[in-house]
């Protein structure tokens, strides 16, 4: 047994299995990109294009992270595949990291697609350092949403998972100012935006291009990190609860 | 050092006792078949042994190591093979890919190509799991259970959905594994499977092992034969024949349970010279099994 080989194969086959599901791949990529083209490029001038690149970029990376984890884990559970793997010597982190790697691949694909559209058709001009930093922010920002997906996947049935993910994903995106700038939301909702990890991620991204609301970077980082840790704790707890019960 | 040694295992869900003190042990190269009606606790027993469900009390030793709760060490899992009743793999991965993935988990297991061969799916190696027939899926799951060349193998209803040929091929494989010294725990609904494969059968009923022994011993517990015939004698007359335990009739077909078939038949032929379609059979394991599981229930009902 070669531990590195397990991690590599687990990740490769998870990705392969997803790539062979066009019903997942196409909407995951097309949804945020089409939104961005529509609202960020066709109906906007230069400034808004950059702003919306960040917010729709956040929206884009959140989807596959939550859906890949929630739906696939719920379905692996329902079909006994996860049980079979848990009984095998497979290290559990290999399974989870594989799913996370798949989410990162999707994030990267969305980043490349949207950055290209922004630069070629949206008239977005950023320094090389800004492009790279923004890409890093979005890639790292995949983690908290992957954790949300993981928790949902560990707790929901395979039938309920897709609907519940949408129920979390779409309102969270709207209330964090990912579709419309947060300033356009009613004051109460603007204040409530602080509870969403996606709000802090988008503000950090907007800071890179100097279009954020002006709160300190450290506050956003602190809140995003602590919510990720909290989500990780809940995820571990969900996993323990799952393995203690009859699955 | 027995591969499996279980003592006084209990498990209850709320007030519902599922396992009420189960003892089983299994030697290398032994096939143990756990039989029992639905709800007897078979699934819970297997899940508890595998560490998927936590027992309330009792001892589980695997290869001499006492198990604490649901944790099973990495080293131990290298030696176990499991085929679960509900087992479906990623529909989008091919037979070969699933084998490749599973074989990577084990230190001294079979290669992916060997697993494809064990499953007998060489001609379907590039076919995705979702496109396989039910029997082919079962064969792949069986092969994956062998991925680590296990010393202890759990087979939960392994031939469900298989055609006769595939079933016999799997039986052949299990017999070979037994010769190689693999200990096998098997649950099945097919009594023929138990008769064919099992060295010992444990009959689980209401969370207890109500009988245990070889298939022959279990049959011997039911020392009676079945006499079938057509006769003009009435049920009352038939019941008075020597050694008759029970009389039943389906249209013209009469079935007698007899403690001593020869005596019964001689008297039957004396009483009715026009007996036709006479047939004497040993009791099938299925009937022996039904009888064993019915007895405690009946006793309980009487006690209640």
From TrEMBL, chain A:
<dbReference type="InterPro" id="IPR051784">
    <property type="entry name" value="Nod_factor_ABC_transporter"/>
</dbReference>
<dbReference type="GO" id="GO:0140359">
    <property type="term" value="F:ABC-type transporter activity"/>
</dbReference>
<feature type="transmembrane region" description="Helical">
    <location>
        <begin position="160"/>
        <end position="180"/>
    </location>
</feature>
<dbReference type="InterPro" id="IPR000412">
    <property type="entry name" value="ABC_2_transport"/>
</dbReference>
<protein>
    <submittedName>
        <fullName>Multidrug ABC transporter permease</fullName>
    </submittedName>
</protein>
<feature type="domain" description="ABC-2 type transporter transmembrane">
    <location>
        <begin position="12"/>
        <end position="201"/>
    </location>
</feature>
<dbReference type="Pfam" id="PF01061">
    <property type="entry name" value="ABC2_membrane"/>
</dbReference>
<feature type="transmembrane region" description="Helical">
    <location>
        <begin position="23"/>
        <end position="43"/>
    </location>
</feature>
<feature type="transmembrane region" description="Helical">
    <location>
        <begin position="131"/>
        <end position="154"/>
    </location>
</feature>
<feature type="transmembrane region" description="Helical">
    <location>
        <begin position="217"/>
        <end position="239"/>
    </location>
</feature>
<keyword id="KW-1133">Transmembrane helix</keyword>
<feature type="transmembrane region" description="Helical">
    <location>
        <begin position="94"/>
        <end position="124"/>
    </location>
</feature>
<keyword id="KW-0472">Membrane</keyword>
<feature type="transmembrane region" description="Helical">
    <location>
        <begin position="50"/>
        <end position="74"/>
    </location>
</feature>
<keyword id="KW-0812">Transmembrane</keyword>
<comment type="similarity">
    <text>Belongs to the ABC-2 integral membrane protein family.</text>
</comment>
<dbReference type="InterPro" id="IPR013525">
    <property type="entry name" value="ABC2_TM"/>
</dbReference>
<dbReference type="GO" id="GO:0043190">
    <property type="term" value="C:ATP-binding cassette (ABC) transporter complex"/>
</dbReference>
Automatic annotation (TrEMBL), chain B:
<protein>
    <submittedName>
        <fullName>ABC transporter ATP-binding protein</fullName>
    </submittedName>
</protein>
<dbReference type="GO" id="GO:0016887">
    <property type="term" value="F:ATP hydrolysis activity"/>
</dbReference>
<dbReference type="InterPro" id="IPR003439">
    <property type="entry name" value="ABC_transporter-like_ATP-bd"/>
</dbReference>
<keyword id="KW-0067">ATP-binding</keyword>
<dbReference type="Pfam" id="PF00005">
    <property type="entry name" value="ABC_tran"/>
</dbReference>
<keyword id="KW-0547">Nucleotide-binding</keyword>
<dbReference type="InterPro" id="IPR027417">
    <property type="entry name" value="P-loop_NTPase"/>
</dbReference>
<dbReference type="GO" id="GO:0005524">
    <property type="term" value="F:ATP binding"/>
</dbReference>
<keyword id="KW-0813">Transport</keyword>
<dbReference type="InterPro" id="IPR050763">
    <property type="entry name" value="ABC_transporter_ATP-binding"/>
</dbReference>
<dbReference type="InterPro" id="IPR017871">
    <property type="entry name" value="ABC_transporter-like_CS"/>
</dbReference>
<feature type="domain" description="ABC transporter">
    <location>
        <begin position="4"/>
        <end position="231"/>
    </location>
</feature>
<dbReference type="InterPro" id="IPR003593">
    <property type="entry name" value="AAA+_ATPase"/>
</dbReference>
